[in-house]
Amino acid sequence: MRVKDTLNLGKTKFPMRGRLPETEAQREALWEENKVYEQRQKLNEGKPSFVLHDGPPYANGPIHIGHAMNKISKDFIVRYKSMTGYRAPYVPGWDTHGLPIEHQLTKAGYDRKKMSLTEFRDLCQKYALEQVEIQKKGFKRLGVAGEWDHPYLTLAKEFEAAQIKVFGAFAKRGLLYQAKKPVYWSWSSESALAEAEVEYHDVVAKTAFFIEQVQDGKGLLDSDTYLVGWTTTPWTIPASEAVAVSADFEYALVQPSGSDRKYVVAASLLGDLAQKFNWTDYQVVKTFKGAEMEGMTTKHPYIDRELLVGLADYVTDDAGTGLVHTAPGYGDDDYNFGKKYNLPIFAPMNDQGVLTAENGPEFDGVFYQDADDISLRLLEEHDALLLEEDLEHSYPFDWRTKKPIVFRATDQWFVSIDKMRDEILKAVDEVTYYPTWGKVRLRNMLKDRGDWVISRQRVWGVPLPIFYAEDGTPIMTEETINHVSDLFREYGSNVWFDREAKDLLPAGFTSEHSPNGKFTKETDIMDVWFDSGSSHQGVLAERDYLTYPADMYLEGSDQYRGWFNSSLITSVVVSGHAPYKSVLSQGFTLDQSGKKMSKSLGNVIDPNKVVKQMGAEIIRLWVMSADTSADVRVSMETLQQIAESYRKLRNTFRFLLANTSDFGPENFVAYEKREAVDQYMTVNFNRFLAGMRDEFDRYDFLNAYKHLINFVNNDLSSFYMNVAKDVLYIEPEDSHVRRSMQATFYEILSGLTKLLTPILPHTTEEVWSYMDEPEDFVQLTEIPEARTFENGNALLEKWEGFMELRSHVLKCLEEARNAKLIGRSLEASADLYLTASQQELLADLGTDAGLLCGVSALSVHDASEAPAEAESFSDNAAVLVQAAKGEVCDRCRMTKEDVGSDPAYQQLCARCAKLVRENFPQTVEEGLEK
Q1: What's the N-to-C CA distance of the chain in angstroms?
Q2: Distance CA 743, CA 748 (A)
Q3: With pLDDT > 90 as the criterion, what percentage of the chain qualifies?
Q4: 202 forms bridges with which residues in the sheet?
Q5: How far apart are CA 257 and CA 249, in angstroms?
């Protein structure tokens, strides 16, 4: 018999290498075949509900790493809740309407103007459903559990029907109105945009300082006086109707030396402007308040038009001249000014951003950006241009096409936010936010939000269910809304485009506004934010196993102006409360340099490729390790580092499995009867478990990750599993000391496997398959509650004191190793020089301190006896490490002076010889081979 045959070396077939790309897919197929998600739902029937409502990603293109972070974060929470006493169904969803899908069809060669609307819409639906399947496959491959066979789609009939009812709630409360007012207009999309669809980029604009001659100066200014205006959009000058000034500003009438003209500018800006205009010598004729200028008129610089001077509080003196060129058709402030002074709302531009003849013949058919140069040339030709200069400033862009947009007055349907702002802000206060600053963010977004433009001049979406009478009166009564909703529930929204208005109205419908019984219908569709913002009705209220409000909405921080925002508004109108009890927001995924990922930069990380190369578990563990409350940088190097952490976790599971392979329920040792070190690790593990559950409860997965890695690396690998080898391998198979440790190992293995199932379900299911447990899948178990123990805190405190002493020994061992005094720690002996209280602590442990410190011999002395060569520590302990005396035992590998003391076992120490003699008596005669 060989020496190794007398050892209880751990055995397991659990592989060291996971082959995740291959085995994960097999495991996912097994889950689907066995309907594990459905089994979990059935197990949770009757429990309190926790519903995380999925914010619908847009159905266009494969998933990206941001999608992965979002869906995996949701999966962590849903799985955790499902395994800790909650019924937590998860219904994934998709946003399936909107312009990008129309664009994709156009790029594919389809011309919507050469086919019927329903034909084009059918193509849009087909494309959207194809994209849903592509993304669904990507999400499922990440191990995300949910109702994949019955997701929600904003194009589904029942969803559209519910959305029409939400629209009806707005109509019933008188919150909808039609107006011609400036909106964000995307010429590249040929549609109005909501605030949430706009992003800002720095651009360099051509700015103009130009003059307008006073016509009626109200006795204050003469006709040889010119008001100096300023604009960053010279192309809008043809639409100018007024000059805005501040009532409170002091204005200066200035005459430059040698000029027969006088100019008006804000007095506070005169010094800077004089430099710009090369007024080296000038006279301030007089100053006056802006309020005195109200009602004056000036002459347009190059069009035969009289302009009004009026007062506005948006005029500032931080740039420009203090006099603002005002075109009511091209800006929100300008529009309000125009309404105040009853000016024309004039925006002579077509849907593609091309100016019309109403601007003047020079501008007819000119793209607005090219019109800057024409306007500047006309100013110069009319001797009205004082200065042209470039200015870098922030400008709005269409977030989808990445093209600049304009403010343009068009006929649109709006939701009046002002009428319900107080209700909305009250609802904000009733929600819990993670992080807490989310409340301020959302409140500010809503506090300052303008009216919501909900009409879109497109075809792929839910139509506005509005009819028009013969005299133009809009009709959207409760009766018509409910009828349209019923039609959509039966036929889908295509019915709106297939039928005439009269066939969409309730049978026998009449209106005093249509004496001849004739009606027309609206052709615009709803903003897609109204689609997704209605999901609380289309999904939560629609499906009886979900709850409204949801317990949580979790999305990126951009959704404070998007889905969180629109959902809150619609829910307040429908039900008077928020659609969610809590909101968790996350940052964006960036590359390692902090740049936004884009294909053109070549810095995109494709989760599908990572899954094929490394496995979904690596992405899942990365998500756990990331501070998702802020923007998250990720690179392949980051994922490689995470892969190392994963390997450590996997090897820990493997060690625990290997060393409990011969352990069964009949071998269990109760906590009270366990060895001291096992009692300590039992209490310590339960403290770890309590901390992890607390962090999971607070959705603090980053700290949970740190806690996990620390426990695995320090408490298990560096301490307990290291110490264990001398017990599990060396002691007799059925000895109390070994079974005590195995009982603790198995509890840690079982608890850790269940605890990490929300994070690493592929791996924990693999581990579970090697454990003799009644449940077929670990996902169908419960994460254990942390146990408490009598005197548990005192025990931990005592062991923490020992760990401090142990750290002194480890430090000295490392120094001895570096000095070539020893190789392995078992080649060393340690002398500890301790205070009386430290000696008492060591004695109270009731365990072999030498074994726990990893040395072959350990002696304890009084601190006062410490020799000069011993290393001293701040707690008055001292340690002396030396090479251990004796020879190395072939079985336990310790260096002992009693090796060979048993004549039958010359290569064994006395302890090992005794154990072998008792358990393998045949070896007394046969002897042992190496």
Answers
A1: 9
A2: 9
A3: 81
A4: 394
A5: 25
Tokens of 260: 């027969």
Give dist(CA 699, CA 436) in Å, integer: 13
Q: How confident is the model at residue 915 (pLDDT cuts 50, 70, 90)?
A: very high
Count of CB atoms within 10 A of residue 903's CB? Answer: 8
Cβ-contact 88, 78 below 8 angstroms: yes
Quickly state the pLDDT bin for 600 (edges 50, 70, 90).
low
Q: What is the mean pLDDT of the chain?
A: 93
Burial class (CB in 10 A: 0-12, 13-18, 19+), 840: exposed
Residue 826 vs residues 9, 620, 642, 817, 829: alpha-carbon distances, Å: 19, 39, 32, 11, 8
- Write phi, then psi, for 278 (nearest 5 degrees): 60, 35
Amino acid type, 372:
D
Q: What's residue 454's pLDDT? A: 92
HSE (side-chain half, CA atoms, 13 Å) at 634: 31
Region 156-178: mean pLDDT is 97
Q: With contact defined as beta carbons under 8 Å apart, do 606 and 597 qualify? A: no
713 band by pLDDT with thresholds 50, 70 and 90: very high
- Please name the helix (run of DSSP H) or strand (run of DSSP E) that holds residue 452, with its range, or none: strand 452-453
- pLDDT given for residue 399 in this prediction: 80
Question: Token digits for 764?
Answer: 């924990």
Closest CA to 18 of 503, 788, 902, 647: 647
For residue 115, give the DSSP letter. S
Q: What pLDDT is attached to residue 392?
A: 84
Contacts of 616 (CB under 8 A, 6+ apart): 20, 24, 141, 142, 143, 762
DSSP secondary structure, 554-611, as one string: EEEGGGGTTHHHHHHHHHHHHHSS-SBSEEEEE--EE-TTSPBP-TTTT----HHHHH
Phi, psi of 100 (to 5 degrees): -55, -35
Looking at residue 599, what is its pLDDT? 64
Map tokens 């906590």 to a residue: 671
DSSP symbol at 887: E
CA nearest neighbour of 103 among 127, 74, 68, 71: 127
Whether the pLDDT of residue 896 is over 90: the answer is yes
Global confidence as pTM? 0.87
β-bridge mates for residue 21, sequence order = none
Find the length of the chain.
930
Count the Cβ atoms, other than its own, within 10 Å of residue 4. Answer: 13
